Amino acid sequence: MTEQQLATEHVSDRNLALELVRVTESAALGASRWMGLGKKNEADGAAVTAMRRAFDTVEIDGTVVIGEGEMDEAPMLYIGEKLGCGGPAMDIAVDPLEGTNLCAKGGPNALAVIAMAEHGNFLHAPDIYMDKIAVGGGLPPEIVDLDAPIEENLRALARAKDCTVPDLVVCMLDRPRHEDKIARARAIGARIMLISDGDVAAAIATSQPESGVDICLGIGGAPEGVLTAAALRCVGGQMQGRLVFENDEQVERARKMGIADPHRKFGILEMARGNVLFAATGVTGGAMLRGVRRFGHGAVTHSVVMRSKSGTVRYIEAHHTAVHNPEPTP
What pLDDT digit, counting tens, does each position of 48-81 carry? Predict the structure, then answer.
């Protein structure tokens, strides 16, 4: 590749990253109209519609590989849908409203999220569960292991961070399936942060010292796992995941999506390879991003955009005037 081609590719990556922010901003603005109204489906629908419309102007030949479901389950942003107005072939992972319940209830950390990579670089994870473990950057390689006992992982992480286990904060979804892990972590002194939803934001928080979260683990959504892996790739974080199946039909579905060994443990580079772009806009405020603030005839959004190639993380505050989103019907 010539020096001019490298420069062109660099500019193209940067431009695409900013285009992704415009798409997540649109989704967040759409969902924000429904914040606190107790209607999660309507909030999600508004985010999906706004995100899909915004993609029409992005100069890519995109294919949704993580989306709102299969073609017969979702009218837009379904797996396999083509997006963009022409350009490089890219795979796209989306969650137009990560934390639908959080948005409906006015809780923290609801996000509009997109990750993008060159074709073939994302794990095509079906919409099932995934057992996950994630930590932030700046740590020795393979400091934690999905197959190791939780006590062993926490002690290893404490040594790497030059602290004690009681200094650590472990974030998990507040679900009955995690009761054993919670009890065992507390038994050795670790502090637990339980969240109702939003494990993408929680896992990314491990890369931000000010968040106070040291490790995120437990069973959550597989699509969210791929989005998390994409974000952590950009900041040097570590993550492992394994699909959790409830029946043989789900196993077969994973195989049909190209996963030859559905029961294997995936590393972060197997979930999100190559040059990864990640963008998120806050719908409601949280540890990472402020939520949408609406006023008169406009709004303010707060977003983050990351690139794995350069390792840059940029926060963007955007002021939008004349926001014409339709008013929700109570």
Answer: 999 999 999 999 999 999 998 765 566 899 999 9
Dihedral class, residue 189 (left if φ above 0, else alpha if ψ from -120 to 50, else beta): left
In a 13 Å sphere around the CA of 149, the CA atoms on its Cβ side amount to 7
Tens-place pLDDT, residues 196-205: 998 899 999 9
305, β-bridge pairs = 279, 314
Give alpha helix (H) positions in 213-307: 222-235, 248-256, 268-271
Return the ∠ at Cα 106 (arms to 102 and 110), rounded to 5°: 40
**What tokens does 71 get?**
């073609």
115 Cβ contact list (under 8 Å, min separation 6): 66, 92, 93, 94, 122, 226, 227, 230, 231, 272, 276, 277, 278, 279
In angstroms, the CA 91 to CA 278 distance is 12
Q: Please choose, from the candidates 62, 306, 101, the residue with its C-alpha nearest in 3D space to the C-alpha of residue 204.
A: 306
Contact (Cβ atoms closer than 8 angstroms) between residue 226 and residue 271: yes
Sheet containing strand 191-195, strands side by side:
191-195, 169-173, 215-221, 129-135, 238-244, 266-267
Tokens linked to 249: 């039909």
- DSSP H helices, 66-149, are 100-105
Helices (H), the chain: 3-32, 40-55, 100-105, 150-160, 179-187, 199-205, 222-235, 248-256, 268-271
Whole-prediction pTM: 0.90
